[in-house]
Amino acid sequence: METTIIGIAGGTGSGKSTFTNRLKQYFGDNVTVIYHDNYYKPHDDLPFSERQDMNYDHPDALETGLLVRHLEALKQGKSIRCPVYDFTQHTRSDRTILIQPSRVILVEGILILQDERLRELFDIKIFVEADADERILRRVVRDMNERGRELENIIEQYLMTVKPMHYLYVAPTKNVADLIINSGLNDVAFDLVKTKIQQLLSQG
Ligand SMILES: Nc1ncnc2c1ncn2[C@@H]1O[C@H](COP(=O)(O)OP(=O)(O)O)[C@@H](O)[C@H]1O
Ligand SMILES: Nc1ccn([C@@H]2O[C@H](COP(=O)(O)O)[C@@H](O)[C@H]2O)c(=O)n1
């Protein structure tokens, strides 16, 4: 089986997951989703207070080599066990998820277009764009509701690492994207990508 891998990048809060999850919801088991976030290094040898203060927006924060190996295995028709990251604990959980090979794989994450090995594996590269003020507002709500964070910590982390790393490592990757999407809720972009995936699936 041929495999097509689509990378979906964009800054934090840009709407990457919203766009990716909409495609997953539409295609169900015909499409597999892998989140780079699950490949954050665990650092479970360090106390919580130290894990809390780390820079999670630098490429070195992620075990991207493992993601590369997993994508290569899926392309070869092998299943993989994907780690599961726990944002409330700043480390990986004990769980892994069994992921089966499929015709189309979506890979989502802030830094996926920054890594040359990943770029080589992607057949289609998408960047989801959104203004910085909207992204941080969404992140505040999301991190407080879903990631167990407090407002003060979110603001400090944003100013110390998230914002500078975004402009150093994430924003420039817009230039290597095949497609730049204005918002994760963009219906036209969704229809275009949906049609492309339908075409790939019908080719088998
Ligand atoms: N265009 C949009 N308008 C309003 N809210 C949005 C939009 N895109 C995403 N959101 C919301 O913002 C939050 C972060 O979006 P998400 O897709 O998780 O971002 P990312 O994966 O890029 O960090 C979610 O709660 C989502 O529902
Ligand atoms: N322990 C961690 C690990 C990562 N982050 C932040 O997650 C952001 C990426 O995820 P998105 O869903 O927002 O794209 C990234 O900006 C990291 O700062 C974290 O807060 N804690």
From TrEMBL:
Lineage summary: Bacteria, Bacillati, Bacillota, Negativicutes, Selenomonadales
Example of a GO biological process term: CTP salvage
Protein name, entry field: Uridine kinase
GO molecular function: ATP binding; uridine kinase activity
Protein's pathway: Pyrimidine metabolism; CTP biosynthesis via salvage pathway; CTP from cytidine: step 1/3; Pyrimidine metabolism; UMP biosynthesis via salvage pathway; UMP from uridine: step 1/1
InterPro entries per the UniProt record, alphabetical: P-loop_NTPase, PRK/URK, Uridine_kinase-like
Entry's localization field: Cytoplasm
Protein family (similarity comment): Belongs to the uridine kinase family.
GO cellular component: cytoplasm
Keywords of the record: ATP-binding, Cytoplasm, Kinase, Nucleotide-binding, Transferase
Catalytic activity: uridine + ATP = UMP + ADP + H(+); cytidine + ATP = CMP + ADP + H(+)
Domain Phosphoribulokinase/uridine kinase: residue ranges: 5-184
Primary site of residence: cytoplasm
EC number: 2.7.1.48
